[in-house]
Design a protein that fits this description.
Elements (H helix, E strand, L loop, with lengths): L4 H29 L7 H24 L3 H23 L6 H24 L2
Helix pairs in contact: 1-2, 1-3, 2-3, 2-4, 3-4
Length: 122
């Protein structure tokens, strides 16, 4: 039975957000229990974004079964919008345009790679 692309995007976005929350908790525990310095936090945050969007793109593409790159990039873009909205709600004065554009690019890139891998793993 064919799956709606909208359903796969919502499913992928949900998986991306859940993966992000779990990765943030894991990174927090890692920083708390190991001697790793907090100076690596920006790199960890980018890694969390890429992995979260990648997993979302993977799930969306695997669910749909076609157009993996498009599905992954779409999930990455939706994921970016959700993350920006959350950032605006939490601390509207702390949003930097350049850093946000870098994060958006990383999210879209991660989603696209995840989408490609989702189709390739079928």
């Amino acid at each position: 039975m064919p799956v709606s692309p909208a359903y796969s995007l919502v499913k992928g976005l949900g998986c991306a957000l859940i993966a992000t929350v779990l990765a943030i908790v894991a990174c927090g525990a890692m920083l708390k229990t190991t001697p790793i310095s907090e100076k690596y936090l920006p790199f960890l945050a980018l890694a969390v974004l890429i992995v979260g969007a990648g997993l979302g793109g993977f799930v969306a593409a695997r669910t749909t079964g076609e157009r993996g790159l498009v599905q992954g990039v779409a999930v990455g873009a939706l994921y970016t919008i959700v993350i920006v909205v959350i950032a605006l709600v939490i601390g509207p004065g702390n949003l930097d345009l350049t850093a946000s554009l870098v994060r958006a690019g990383c999210s879209v890139f991660g989603g696209g790679i995840g989408g490609i891998l989702g189709i390739a793993s079928r």
